[in-house]
Every structure is written in structure tokens, then in C-alpha cells.
Design brief:
The protein is mainly alpha-helical. It folds into 2 domains: about 1-65, Arc Repressor Mutant, subunit A, CATH 1.10.10; about 75-205. Helix content is about 75%, strand content about 0%. Helix 1 crosses helix 2, helix 4 crosses helix 6 (about 115-125) and helix 6 packs across helix 9.
């Protein structure tokens, strides 16, 4: 008589190990956001993250090769959080500056609600090429998707000058949100959404 018990036990063990791996990963990423936010990226070591997450060094290196790898993983996992903001832009039909200003307010609010991780990604991208190019690839993918809705972004697929304009615009929007939310550039009159809207509207006229 053939028994499947050993195979069933192996599957249960594999499922348990995978669950433990996911829980460890989640703990490490949550700890990374907290520790990087408190100490800054440059002054944070892997050991600081391990202590906060209560995870062993061996468990860490089974999933990540460095503290930079943690930030890159955060960037990947963060895409489903910010994409809906741009999905709301893509539903606009021939948006006016007023329409775009309303969207820009939403975008700035998203940065404010996610200040810790948005700030971390912006800062580390200025220090680490690996993360910079990862975020650049994400923006290029976004440009492609925006091209399904807006002709200007569709042109960017074939026109190098238009692609440069689109890349610069998205980078400037993120940088503006970072500076405003962090208070690096004061905006007591709340003019930033209008300025962002005017930039987007100008590009869409090409």
C-alpha cells in the first residue's frame, strides 16, 4: 500500500518554512524603515536592523546581501502603494490645470502619508546607483503606462527628447513633493499643487 504521508509532511514543512521566511522578511523591512528613519541611511548598519527586528544575522543573509538590498526590496514592495495615485491621473480626460491641481494635491498627500519611506527612497537614491536605476526603471515603466492614456507620453517611446521631458517631469514631481513635505522649501501659501499641475499641463500640450 502506497502512503503519501512523507510527501504531505514535506509539503507542510515547506509551507511552514515559507511562512517563516515571509514573516522574517516583513519584520526586517518594517525594522529597516524605522531604523533608517531614526538614524539615517549612512549611520545605520545591518546590526541595527537586526536588533530592531530581533532577527539573526544568518536569517538576514538568507534573504538580503546588504542594507542596500533592504531598501531596494522596500522600493519594489512600494509600487502597489503609489501606482493607484497615477491610475487616478490616467482616468482624467483632457485634464485642465484645475483637474491636475486636484491630482497634485492627492499626490502630495500620498507623500505626506508615506513620508518615512518616500523620504528614505529619495535620499538613498541620491547615494546608491543600484537604487537610483531601480527607481528610474520604475519611472520608465510608468511613462509607458501613461502613454496608453496621453499622447505626449506615448511619443516618449520613440522620441528621445520627449522621453527626456517625461523623465525630468516625473523626477521633478517627486523631488518637489519631498521638499515640500519635509519642509525643506516652505510653501505657506500651498502653491506647490498648482505649480506641479502647470508643469504637467505644459508637457501634455506637446
Amino acid at each position: 500500500m502506497i502512503t503519501l504521508r512523507p510527501a504531505s509532511a514535506a509539503r507542510r514543512n515547506n509551507a511552514r518554512q515559507e511562512q517563516q521566511r515571509l514573516e522574517t522578511r516583513k519584520a526586517l523591512l518594517a525594522a529597516a524603515v524605522e531604523v533608517f528613519g531614526a538614524r539615517g541611511y549612512l549611520d545605520t548598519s545591518v546590526e541595527h536592523v537586526l536588533a530592531r527586528a530581533n532577527v539573526s544575522r544568518a536569517a538576514f543573509y538568507r534573504q538580503f546581501d546588504s542594507k542596500l538590498a533592504l531598501v531596494c526590496a522596500l522600493a519594489s514592495d512600494f509600487v502597489p502603494n503609489w501606482r493607484p495615485v497615477f491610475d487616478s491621473l490616467m482616468v482624467l480626460s483632457a485634464p485642465s490645470i484645475d483637474d491636475l491641481e486636484q491630482w497634485a494635491r492627492l499626490h502630495i498627500a500620498f507623500h505626506r502619508d508615506n513620508q518615512a519611506i518616500c523620504g528614505l527612497l529619495t535620499q538613498v537614491a541620491g547615494l546608491e546607483d543600484r537604487l537610483y536605476w531601480q527607481l528610474a526603471d520604475q519611472r520608465d515603466a510608468l511613462i509607458t503606462d501613461l502613454g496608453q492614456r496621453f499622447d505626449t507620453f506615448r511619443q516618449a517611446a520613440e522620441d528621445p527628447a520627449m522621453r527626456l521631458r517625461a523623465r525630468l517631469l516625473l523626477a521633478q514631481i517627486d523631488e518637489t513633493c519631498f521638499l515640500i513635505v519635509r519642509g525643506r522649501i516652505p510653501d505657506p501659501g500651498h502653491h506647490a499643487p498648482r505649480l506641479i499641475a502647470e508643469q504637467i499641463h505644459a508637457l501634455l500640450q506637446f
